[in-house]
């Protein structure tokens, strides 16, 4: 199996300034460890809510670090300093609206304020960039989806579509543990 290079970016003024411990990157790493069959290498960044810096970091992770996938956490709300989606859109080559729509759909299952989220999914060169929520529980829900007590999927998580998207943009072939995230690929793909 190919190694997947993944950029993990936690955007938080307070975590960056040491007011509290960043929980976003550890939550992302835990989820990826449980979900991916592929070996993966993480390039981690903890940065403040500064749009120009977020743009610079995302560009570096794509253009120089050559990450196949970049997951950001935090800064997706309606507050003035929540600028992660703005930065992401500014550096994007193409927008994939379905990722943001599905993230909100998953979150709406749990909280009505999910409609305030401005999460995005974009492509820059050969990298997929996804803006995830900031709380660890919400990160896992967004990636895995919602299942009933018997483990049947009620709302698909976004990671079900990530491997096919990465295939389409020339990245490595990603396989997942289906009990965490069932990857969908057309039968003839």
CATH architecture: 3-Layer(aba) Sandwich
Strand content: 15-25%
Number of helices: 7
Largest sheet: 6 strands, mixed
Radius of gyration equals: 15 Å
- Reading the helices and strands in chain order gives EHHEHEHEHEEHEEH
Distance between the termini: 17 Å
SS-based class: alpha/beta
Shape: globular
Report the uncertain regions: none
Strand order of the largest sheet: 2-1-3-6-5-4
| Count of domain modules | 1
Give the CATH class: Alpha Beta
Q: What is the CATH third-level topology name? A: Molybdenum Cofactor Biosythetic Enzyme, Chain A
Helix content: 25-40%
Mean of pLDDT = 95
Structure overview:
- Catalyzes the adenylation of molybdopterin as part of the biosynthesis of the molybdenum-cofactor.
- GO terms for molecular function: ATP binding; molybdopterin adenylyltransferase activity.
- The protein is an alpha/beta fold and 189 residues long.
- It has one domain (4-168): Molybdenum Cofactor Biosythetic Enzyme, Chain A (3-Layer(aba) Sandwich), CATH 3.40.980.
- It is built from 7 helices and 8 strands; from the N terminus they run βααβαβαβαββαββα.
- The chain has helices at 13-16, 24-35, 51-64, 84-91, 97-108, 136-144, 162-168; strands spanning 4-11, 40-47, 69-73, 94-95, 121-124, 127-132, 145-147, 153-156.
- The strands form 2 sheets. It has a 6-stranded mixed beta sheet with strand order 2-1-3-6-5-4, sandwiched between helices. Strands 7-8 form a two-stranded antiparallel ribbon.
- β5 and β6 (127-132) form a beta hairpin.
- The longest helix has 14 residues, at 51-64.
- The protein is globular and about 45 Å long.
- The mean pLDDT is 95.
């Amino acid at each position: 199996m190919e190694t997947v290079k993944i950029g993990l970016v936690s955007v938080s003024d307070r975590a960056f300034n040491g007011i509290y411990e960043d929980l976003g990157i550890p939550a992302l790493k835990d989820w990826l460890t449980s979900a991916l069959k592929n070996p993966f290498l993480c390039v981690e960044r903890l940065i403040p809510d500064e749009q120009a810096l977020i743009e610079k970091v995302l560009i570096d992770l794509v253009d120089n670090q050559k990450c196949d996938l970049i997951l950001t956490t935090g800064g997706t709300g309606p507050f003035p300093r929540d600028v992660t989606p703005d930065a992401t859109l500014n550096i994007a080559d193409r927008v994939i609206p379905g990722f943001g729509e599905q993230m909100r759909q998953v979150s709406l299952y749990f909280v009505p304020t999910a409609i305030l989220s401005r999460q995005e999914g974009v492509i820059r060169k050969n990298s997929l960039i996804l803006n995830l929520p900031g709380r660890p529980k919400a990160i896992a829900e967004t990636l895995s989806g919602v299942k009933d007590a018997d483990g049947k999927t009620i709302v698909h998580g976004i990671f079900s579509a990530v491997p096919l998207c990465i295939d389409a943009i020339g990245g490595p072939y990603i396989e997942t543990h289906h009990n965490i995230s069932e990857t969908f690929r057309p039968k003839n793909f």
